[in-house]
Amino acid sequence: MLEKINHIAIAVPDMEQAKQEWGQKLGVNMSDPLPQPEHGVTVIFIELGGTKIELLEPLGDASPISRFLEQNPDGGMHHICFEVDDILKARDHLLANGARVLGDGTPKIGAHGKPVLFIHPKDVTGTLIELEQV
Ligand code: CO
User: Fold this and answer.
1) Which CATH number belongs to the domain containing residue 129 in this structure?
2) How remote is the CA of residue 24 from the centroid of ligand 1, in Å?
3) Number of folded domains in the chain?
4) What is the extent of the structural domain holding 75?
5) How far apart are CA 83 and CA 63, in angstroms?
6) What spacing in Å lies between the alpha carbon of 1 and ligand 1's midpoint?
7) Res 128 pLDDT > 90
8) 20 CA distance to ligand 1 centroid (A)?
9) Residue 11 near residue 68, CB atoms below 8 Å
10) Collapsing DSSP states into helix, strand and coil, what is residue 33?
């Protein structure tokens, strides 16, 4: 069901500090910060080894990562996104196997313009998993 990792998302409290830590300490190339107000985040993309790291900083009052950062003030891994061929088939498999899908279970258009779903972290080893149909 799961294909390759599309991206790993890391919530950061301060993008300038994150740029230093990833750009200087780890020495990776990164995009410029891209505000995505419709998703409540500013994103820096790091392309690495055929996949991506996304650094997410809250943007606006109702950012979906604000609560995570309250609980993890230094930042941390927020979710892993896997590619799937058929997101509805993947959802039905998850529901049939006791995993909860966040929201009403209908795929939404994600930050890359493709249908996405999130699986409840309590149902998968405490890890928020995003599925993206490619
Ligand atoms: Co994502």
Assistant:
1) 3.10.180.10
2) 24
3) 1
4) 5-133
5) 24
6) 18
7) yes
8) 22
9) yes
10) coil
